Structure formats: C-alpha cells, structure tokens
C-alpha cells in the first residue's frame, strides 16, 4: 500500500482518544423524534445493544472489515428494534418515562436482563428472544451486582448459573439466573439504586449514602454520605459491621477496627443458601405468607412485544399498583442544573483551572451515587457537596478502610468509569504496552470562556501524586469525532461487558519503514553519491544524478539484483508487521446524541507526538518562541529518558520518538536564530540522535554542504514514515540556489556538533545491522569536517592530545571505509602528510613514500607536519620489506643526502632483504656517485671490510687532491698548517692530532684528509706504491719548489708521504720529511723506535723491531738532526737524542760525527752513559766468568759423589 506523504494529524495528547463505534444510530423508528437519546449501551460478541429514552432496545450486528482492504472499517447494521415490556405506574405520564435504564448481559447463561421504566424483563442472547415466559420484575431501581471476579466465558462456568442483585424499593433480592430464575435470599436494604459486587461483598448506594454488604452473611458496613451537606442521615455506628439478617434494627456485629483480624469477606452461610427456591415456588410462597412486596415476579397484562426492526407501539396493558412506599425524590441532574445556572448567570473567564466552587446550598442536595471497582479488592465511591462543586473519589477495601489517596474531580461527575490498573476482568485490556496504567474517566461539564463544555476528565488512580497537583486530562468532542455533536452535548460513558480490538492506523503510518531519498528533487534513490574532487565546489547533484543512474548496474554489479516490485513488497510486509503490533483494545463506550465511540487508550506514540506537534506549532521567528520550542522538545526526550520498553511496540515507539524529536531539534539547531543552542542542549540533541539509532545519512541529508557525501546502495535508506515526513519537509524548505553550499558556509557550532556526533557514530562499527554505506558516508563527512576545522591550526604543529589535528590523525590512522573519497578530500585540501598516514594505514608503502617525496621536493602541504622528511623516509625504509622500494628510495635519498641515503643500504636491522656490498657500490656509482664514499666508509670503518680500503683511499685522494688543485686557498691553508706546527715548542702533539684539533667540523675536505691519514696509518692492505705515484702525478703540475724540499707535492701532502715512505721502506725520506718539513722530532724518534713499520703520525703502537733496525734508523735520524738549519735546534735535538738513546750509538762513530767546535757539554751525558755502560759490561763479564768457574767446580763435585756412590765395577771378561 502506498504511503501518504504526510502522516494523519493526531487529535490529542491525553491517554485516551475517541474512535467511532457507531455513527448516526437510528434512535427513532420513524426518524422524526429528535428528542430520543441513548441511556445505556453494551457489547458482546459483535452485538451492540443500545437502550434509548424511547423505551426501545436497538440490536446492531457487527460486519467485520475486508481483510484484503486495510482501509476498510467495521460496520454495524440494525438487526432488531425491541420494545421491552414494562408496567406503567399509576398516574404516570409518558414524558416521565426514563426508557431503557439498564442492559445487563449474562453470556455465561446466554441471558440478558433489561431494566425499562423500572421493570425488568429477561431475554436470550444474542437475538433477544423472551425467556422465562412473560415474567417481569416491577418497581426495580437497579439490576446488577454480577460478581466481577467471575469470568464471562461460558466454558468457565461450573454451576451453570449467574447470581445478580435486584434493587427493589424495600430490599435487595439475590437471584440466581440459569435455566430458570431463583431467588437465593433477600437482603434488608431499602431504596438501593446502585450495586457493584466482588465475590460476596457488594458496594451499594441508596439516594443518600454508600454501604458495604456481605450478601452471603447479610452483614452491612455503613460508609459515608453521598453529599457531605446531607444532614438528614441519622447518626449511627458509621464504619462498623451490622447484622441485617434479622429485624430492621440489625444489631452491632463488630467494629471496623477489627477488620484486619476478622474480614468481612467469609464463606457463605449454608442456612442462607438453603432458602433458595424456584421462581414459581417463590411467587406462590409470597402469596401464602403475605409478603409486603407481594408480588415481585408478575405476568404482564399484555402479550410480549414484537421484535421486528419496525416501529413498535407501547404496551397497552394496565399496570398494577405498587403497594410499596414511594422512594425519595431522585437526584437532580447536574447537567440540567449547570445549564440553568449558565442561562441565568454569566460565566467567569476561562482560566488554567476551569473549576469554580459554588457556595453551599441550604436546601438538601441529592447527588447521583457512583461506584466502580478498579481492582479486585477495592471500590471507588464518589462524594461531594453539590453538582457544581468538586467531587471526591474515595477508595475503600472490603472492610471499608481507605486504601489509597483520594481523587479530586473538578465537578461532581455525571458518570464514572475505571479502566486499567491491576489485571481484572472488569477493566479493558491495555493497549500498546500500557498494562499497568489505571485511569478513572469521569463525564462532567466545565465552564470555559465560550460556555459549558461537556467532556471527560481523565486521571490516574494507581500512582501516588505526592504533594503536587495531580495530572488531569480533558477530552471532549472535536470536529473529527462528530459532524453533528459538539462540546455542548452531554457525554454518556460506560464500561461494557466485552470490548473490541482495533487497528491504530496512525501508528502504522508513523512506524512503517519507508524508503527515503536524501537528495532534493530526486524521487528514486541513486546508488551512489555524486562527489567531485572538491565537495566544497561540487556541481549540482540534481543535474548529474539522472546521468549517473545509467551506470548504476555496472558500478554495483557485485550487489544482489532486486526483483521487480520489491519496494512495494517491503512496504506491504512492513505494514503487516506494524499492524500486528499497533492494536488497541477498549471496553469503554462513550456516546452523545446518536453517535457512539470507543474510549481507546491513546498509544504512547501518539501522546508524545502530539506534544511534539504542540511544541512545534508554537515555533516562530521570535527568539523567545524558539527557545521555548526547543525546551519543550527536550522535555519530551526527558520524559522517555531511562524508560525501559516492555513490549516490542513500545521499543519501536521510544526509538521513533527519539528520532523524530531529535530531527526536529536538529532542524532548529541548523536554522536557529540567536541565541544559539546551549552546550547542554546540543549535548542532549547529540545523545538522542545516537541513542535513537537514526541512520547518520538522514542527519547529513539536512545539511546541503554534506549531502554530497551520502552513499546509498540499491535498496536505499529506510526510516520510519513519521521521521521521513519531517526530514523531507525540512529539505523542501531549503533555498533552491545554484550549486551546492560549501562546508565553509557552516557555522563553527554546527561543525563542532558534527565533529562530536560523527565521531561517536563511528564507534558503532562492527554492528552487523548497519550497512557499510553508512560508515563510508560517516567517515567521509567526518574527514571533511575535521579538515575544515583544522585549517586554523598553526602550520607545522603536530597533533597534541585533545586537538582537532589529533582527531584527524586518529581518524586516518584507524582506517576509513571511504578510502577513495578520503584520498580526494586530502588532495583537495592539500594535506599530503595526512594522506601519507592514510596510505600507511593501508600498508601502501609505495604511496606513502611517493607522498613524502612530493612534499620534500616542494609540493604544497598546508599542514606542514612532515618535519625532517628525509629522516622520516630513512626510518620508514627500514620498516618495509620491499627491496625494490628500499633501492628506489634509498638511491633517491642518497642523491639528495648522501650520508643519509647510505644509511638505508647500511642498515642491518631493516626488514627488507640485505644488499650485497658489491651490488650497493655498483648501484651508488651509477645513480648516486656522491654517496659511494660514505658507503665505503661504512664498509671499512663500520664493518672492518678492508677489501674496499683502496677504493676508499682513492675517493679520499680524489677529494683532497682535487681541492688542492683547484683551490689556492686550500693550498695556502695546508702550507700554513705546516708552518704553524713547526713553530710549536716541544712537547707538541702529533701532526694528525694537530689536524684533528684544528680541522673545521663541516669541512668535507679536511674530514676526508683525516680519514685518509687514518687509513694510510692503519694496518690495512693497500697499494702504497700506486698511491704514492698518484700523489706525485696529480700534484706534479704544482712545481713551485723551495730550498731544502723535494717538491711541491711533498710540501702539500707531507704526512701522507711520510706514511707511504714508511710502507715502502724509504725510511731516510720519511725521517727527512719528519725532521725538516714538519719539525716533528718526537715522531721521528718514535719512528726509529718502531722500526719504520708504521708512521708515528697514526699514534699506533706495533711490536718493537729488532735492535739492528732501530740502530740503523737512529743513525739516520742523528745525521738528519746534525743537518738541521737552526743551530739551536741542531744542538738541542742532537744532545737529547744521544742522551736518551745513547745505547743505540757507537761512541767512536758519534764522536767522529760531532763537530769539533761543539762544547763537550753537548755530549757529556752521552759519554758518561757510554763509560758507565763499558764499566758495567766489564763487571758483568767478570762476574759471568766467576759464576762459570763455580758452576764448573760444582759439576766436578757432583760427578765424584756419583762415582763414590756406585763404587768400583769388576769386569771379569769372557
């Protein structure tokens, strides 16, 4: 069934509504008598019985609705029009006849008792055929007293009879109705006009007071007067049980205070039951005994009336004269009294509380008694002071004690009905999950500005209202209820024997799921959102959508194809499901004029939605109205907050109300004038949207700037019909301007709301009931919002906790479902670093590195968060396993930053397969030659791989020699360093240490030379001859020589030449350079001590050579010292050398070399040491000879001892 565009408006927010039962009942047979009114109604098994003031009983039969047509309704047809027989009182007028006063249906025995003009007649059900012959009961005020605790189901009956109470003028008859009518007992209680019974306890009333009766034991507890102003009641033992089985004076049985120890409800007296007789015997016995009420059951004076639907004339029989005393005057009709007062006096203005209190009347006041039994163990009775004054409802138990707080009626009611409360056969079955709510409905009149309004005052009786004013609801006829009746027509109300279940189509309309299209002007939902690269400048979606629909099948070929008519089928199934839940049940009938309605429990959904509509109807452009509207909407949310659903329908209702209220709040939040929503109001709206489980795409549909991000599959978005109407209404009010507004048009408070709302929605990921399109939409929208908000963050600032940027990082780091759209958005906003984090989440290493490469090479990144991009690339390459990517970006990095790039290939902890050194050297030589040196340094110094020493030395030489060849400044610096070193006074460091201390830290040439000296002076295998040759060849062009030098190359690379000369055994050249060019005398001495095996410039100590080598080198060094140009240095260094290392020199040789002109003091130390050595040597030799002689004597002695020990040996010979 197609759904309407807008759900049917709801009528009221109260707990009850009126739904038509029968409209325009033919109360008059000929249709001419307009004064005929309805007195009473009852309903059983599809049969509606209506009693009128014309003394007619109308029987209507129910025609059920067509099950194939959900829009069809129940119809009633008139089955018969019955005029019950009655006895005309002597002297009575036709105009004073009350008509059919009461209908009592007894389904357990299939009988009906009709009270018409004080005469009771009996009929069968359902066709109303007379039973028990033509028996009547005259002068009856009331029939009833059926045990409300008994089931009305005939199958539950064991005795086959039903006990009722007949209220006669002087006593109450207890009659058992079955196959016949039998009087069980008589109760001496005169003038009763109303009775309600549970088990054996009946609450009865006469014209002035109430009382409790035990119909089995014939006990009575007098209760309060109906009118508190009635002073005519005789004083008596009020609230005390009295025995009324004997005389009229009935003795005192017990006090009310003993009720708890001896309850009134007790087993029936067997003797009392023994008095039951048959109907015929009862009549005969009464005649014999001369009972003052003789006769009670009488034959009518005329034949039984016709039951045809046509007009029936009145009975022409002559009524018998009543021998009973007349009853007191009946109570005045409160409605008539109100109308009379209204005609004579002007009504006060309408106020919030329309109740007015009239002054007490001096004359006796007769009020109509009201008794109902809301639960199985208590009665509700109503008292008051007058028909215009408030009434008080008092709850009493079977002992007459109050059980709960009283009820207050604004006016003394005309009729009272209880519905709901504890499970009870007398109350209607609760509808739509409100099982525990008990209400009292009172028909009354109220005064308003335009006059009297008749209606129903409704209030709860099962809650303790505390000290506050109890909540009351007013229900009156509206134009939707009746076209002929108005609020000026009195309402009748009655709880019928049986109720009826009915569908609540308003609930079906609102709770059925409907397909929703979020795009304005598109009737069919597209399968995808139409997004451009920049949603802020997206073109009109409406124009593009129809073109895109041509490609939907190809774009979503992976989705299951939907059968033809699937949407109508889903709508129909949804309606059937909701209809199975949205049912109401009522037993309460309300009538006015010729119309009858059900008083149906108003579903919670319609109550709350009526409050929403009332709040929205007050909305306006004035700020105060807007604030009040949002407060009322939030109050509706507060009403259902924390409420646990008891039924499936109530669960759906609470969800629907949350969704609808939240959407209404959101619409006002988006368009709210000043002042904006407070933080608390925004939080309440956000929480409600989340708790309601409303599809986030529906929320985004209300924002044109984000509507472009919505993704929909073939089946579309399905939401409650009532929510759909609100959303579509809001969308239809948008300005139809060109294009789509950009997100920058949204105010900061809206963006902040979206930020929190969408972030919270993402936490629902993993719920199987939510389609993936929702999270793709949520992720794209949240990313767009965060990108817009993050534009104000300072460039380069990293994401600190609690910042927008941190949330942006968390979003992409934890993964987004809308990957392609996220890439487009990040590219649009030029947030390349965030894009790289998105790629990292997907482990797309190539894209990560490519994005960083774009940033490093100068492409704009508005966030500026990359920082040291090259170092970040270096670290990332060690964490990926792709060797090809490591090679590609390692080479790229080595080209930009050779030192850093080499670390990629030198990393031993990387996850990618390792490169062979030869492979790396080959790659770097081809693609990043500047990085080769650094990789070789890693191999040689870091890994100790001496195989590449020659290559590394060559690279160092290239750097140093090239610099010297091309830079005069470098040459001057090197020369100056030699001069500075020579100028130092002993003790001074080695020249290498001197270079290290004075080298610029960032000078590549100086650092390369230091590394070259380290390699040359180390224990490495390299081609010293080739290196020396290259040095000589490369610097041969620099032929500027000076006296005492061997060439410019030796002046520029002196330390290198010394080391190489030592390697090639050219010790004389090495010592000459140390002494004459460097002036490094200490190093020259060390060179001699170490035998020239390695240069003393390296600071390395090897094992000492043989003495002959040392002696030879010291002799060369002595000659070089004697050749120094500076005499002082010559004398000083020669004397020091001879004094410290004189043991390596021959005295005669030294003396021959020392110039004769030198003072003896220069060699005094050497000579003294030489003489000491000679004396020491002579003494040592003498000592050695002596020791050798002693050893010889000792050996001879030992030999003689051994010979003596052995003795002589005789050789006998042979």
Automatic annotation (TrEMBL):
Key word Lipid biosynthesis present: no
UniProt superkingdom: Eukaryota
UniProt biased composition (Polar residues): 268-279, 527-542
Main location: cytoplasm
Any GO BP: protein transport
CNH domain span: 35-468
Protein name per UniProt: CNH domain-containing protein
Organism: Podospora appendiculata
């Amino acid at each position: 069934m197609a759904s309407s565009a807008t759900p049917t408006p709801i009528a009221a927010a109260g707990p009850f509504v009126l739904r038509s039962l029968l409209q325009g009942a033919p109360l008059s047979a000929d249709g001419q008598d307009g004064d005929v009114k309805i007195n009473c109604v009852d309903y059983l098994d599809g049969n509606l019985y209506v009693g009128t003031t014309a003394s007619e009983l109308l029987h209507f039969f129910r025609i059920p609705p067509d099950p194939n047509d959900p829009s069809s309704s129940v119809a009633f047809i008139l089955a018969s029009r019955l005029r019950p027989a009655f006895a005309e009182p002597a002297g009575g007028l036709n105009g004073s006849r009350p008509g059919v006063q009461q209908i009592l249906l007894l389904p357990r025995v299939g009988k009906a008792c009709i009270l018409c003009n004080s005469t009771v007649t009996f009929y069968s059900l359902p066709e109303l055929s007379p039973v028990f012959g033509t028996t009547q009961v005259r002068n009856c005020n009331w029939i009833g007293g059926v045990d409300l605790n008994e089931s009305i189901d005939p199958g539950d009956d064991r005795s086959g009879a039903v006990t009722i109470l007949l209220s006669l003028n002087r006593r109450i008859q207890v009659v058992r109705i079955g196959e016949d009518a039998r009087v069980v007992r008589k109760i001496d209680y005169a003038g009763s006009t109303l009775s309600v019974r549970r088990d054996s306890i009946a609450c009865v009333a006469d014209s002035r007071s109430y009382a409790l009766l035990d119909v089995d034991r014939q006990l009575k507890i007098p209760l309060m007067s109906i009118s508190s102003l009635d002073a005519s009641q005789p004083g008596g033992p009020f609230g005390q049980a009295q025995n009324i089985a004997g005389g009229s004076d009935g003795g005192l049985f017990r006090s009310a205070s003993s009720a708890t120890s001896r309850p009134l409800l007790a087993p029936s007296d067997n003797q009392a039951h023994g008095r039951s007789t048959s109907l015929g015997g009862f009549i005969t016995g009464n005649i014999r005994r001369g009972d003052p009420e003789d006769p009670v059951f009488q034959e009518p004076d005329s034949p039984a009336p016709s039951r045809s639907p046509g007009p029936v004339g009145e009975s022409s029989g002559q009524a018998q004269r009543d021998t009973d005393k007349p009853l007191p005057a009946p109570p005045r009709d409160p409605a008539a009294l109100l109308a009379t007062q209204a005609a004579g006096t002007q009504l006060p203005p309408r106020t919030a509380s329309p109740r007015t209190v009239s002054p007490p009347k001096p004359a006796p006041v007769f009020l109509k008694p009201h008794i109902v039994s809301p639960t199985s163990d208590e009665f509700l009775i109503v008292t008051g002071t007058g028909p215009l004054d408030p009434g008080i409802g008092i709850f009493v138990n079977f002992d007459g004690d109050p059980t709960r707080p009283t009820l207050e009626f604004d006016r003394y009611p005309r009729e009272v009905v209880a519905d709901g409360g504890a499970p009870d056969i007398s109350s209607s079955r609760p509808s739509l999950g409100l099982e525990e709510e008990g209400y009292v409905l009172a028909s009354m009149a109220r005064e308003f500005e335009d006059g009297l309004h008749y209606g129903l005052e409704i209030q709860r009786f099962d809650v303790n209202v505390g000290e506050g004013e109890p909540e009351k609801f007013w229900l009156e006829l509206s134009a939707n209820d009746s076209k002929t009746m108005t609020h000026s027509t009195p309402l009748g109300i009655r709880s019928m024997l049986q109720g009826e279940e009915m569908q609540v189509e308003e609930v079906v309309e609102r709770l059925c799921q409907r397909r929703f299209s979020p795009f304005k002007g598109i009737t069919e939902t597209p399968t995808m959102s139409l997004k451009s690269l920049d949603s802020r400048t997206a073109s009109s979606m409406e124009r593009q959508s129809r073109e895109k629909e041509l490609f939907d099948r190809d774009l979503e070929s992976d989705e299951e194809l939907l059968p033809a008519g699937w949407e109508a089928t889903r709508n129909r199934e949804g309606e059937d499901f909701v209809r199975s839940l949205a049912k109401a049940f009522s037993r309460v009938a309300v009538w006015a004029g010729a119309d009858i309605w059900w008083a149906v429990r108003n579903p919670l959904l319609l109550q709350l939605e009526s409050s929403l509509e009332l709040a929205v109807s007050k909305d306006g452009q004035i700020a105060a109205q807007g604030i009040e509207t949002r407060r009322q909407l939030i109050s509706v949310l507060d009403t259902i907050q924390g409420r646990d659903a008891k039924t499936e329908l109530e669960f759906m209702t609470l969800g629907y109300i949350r969704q609808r209220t939240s959407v209404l709040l959101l619409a006002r939040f988006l368009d709210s004038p000043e002042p904006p929503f407070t933080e608390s109001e925004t939080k309440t709206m956000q929480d409600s949207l989340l708790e309601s489980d409303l599809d986030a795409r529906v929320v985004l549909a209300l924002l044109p700037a984000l509507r472009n991000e919505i993704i929909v599959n073939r089946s579309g978005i399905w939401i409650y019909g009532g929510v759909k109407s609100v959303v579509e209404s809001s969308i239809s009010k948008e300005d139809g301007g060109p294009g789509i507004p950009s997100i920058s048009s949204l105010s900061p408070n809206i963006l902040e709301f979206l930020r929190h709302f969408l972030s919270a929605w993402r936490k629902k990921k993993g719920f199987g009931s939510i389609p993936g399109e929702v999270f793709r939409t949520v992720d794209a929208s949240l990313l767009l919002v965060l990108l817009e908000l993050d534009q104000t963050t300072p460039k380069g600032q990293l994401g600190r906790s609690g910042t927008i940027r941190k949330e942006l990082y968390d979003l992409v780091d934890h993964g987004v479902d809308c990957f392609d759209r996220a890439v487009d958005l990040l590219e649009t906003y030029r947030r390349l670093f965030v894009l790289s984090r998105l790629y990292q989440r997907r482990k797309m290493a190539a894209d990560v590195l490519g994005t960083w490469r774009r940033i490093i090479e100068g492409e704009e990144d508005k966030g500026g968060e990359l920082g040291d991009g090259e170092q970040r690339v270096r670290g990332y390459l060690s964490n990926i396993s792709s060797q090809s990517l490591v090679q590609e970006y390692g080479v790229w990095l080595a080209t930009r930053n050779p030192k850093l790039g080499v670390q990629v290939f030198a990393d031993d902890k990387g996850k990618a397969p390792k490169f062979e050194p030869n492979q790396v050297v080959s790659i770097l030589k081809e693609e990043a030659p500047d990085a080769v040196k650094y990789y070789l340094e890693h191999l040689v110094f870091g890994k100790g791989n001496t195989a590449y020493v020659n290559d590394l030395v060559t690279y160092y030489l290239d750097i140093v020699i090239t610099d010297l060849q091309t830079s005069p400044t470098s040459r001057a610096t090197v020369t100056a360093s030699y001069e500075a070193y020579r100028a130092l006074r002993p003790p001074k460091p080695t020249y290498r240490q001197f270079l290290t201390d004075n080298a610029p830290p960032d000078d590549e040439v100086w650092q390369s030379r230091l590394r070259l000296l380290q390699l040359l002076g180390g224990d490495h295998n390299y081609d010293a001859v080739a290196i020396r040759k290259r040095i000589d060849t490369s610097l041969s062009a620099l032929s500027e020589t000076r006296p005492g030098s061997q060439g410019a190359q030796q002046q520029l690379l002196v330390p290198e030449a010394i080391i190489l000369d030592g390697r090639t055994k050219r010790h004389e050249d090495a010592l000459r350079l140390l002494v004459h060019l460097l002036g490094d005398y200490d190093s020259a001495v060390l060179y001699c001590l170490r035998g020239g095996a390695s240069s003393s410039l390296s600071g390395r100590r090897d094992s000492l050579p043989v003495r002959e080598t040392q002696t030879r080198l010291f002799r060369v060094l002595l000659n070089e010292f004697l050749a120094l140009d500076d005499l002082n240095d010559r004398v000083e260094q020669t004397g020091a050398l001879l004094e410290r290392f004189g043991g390596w020199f021959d005295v005669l040789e030294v003396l021959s070399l020392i110039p004769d002109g030198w003072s003896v003091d220069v060699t005094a130390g050497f000579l003294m040491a030489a003489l000491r050595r000679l004396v020491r040597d002579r003494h040592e030799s003498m000592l050695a000879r002596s020791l050798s002689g002693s050893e010889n004597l000792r050996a001879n002695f030992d030999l003689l001892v051994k010979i003596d020990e052995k003795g002589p040996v005789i050789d006998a010979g042979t």
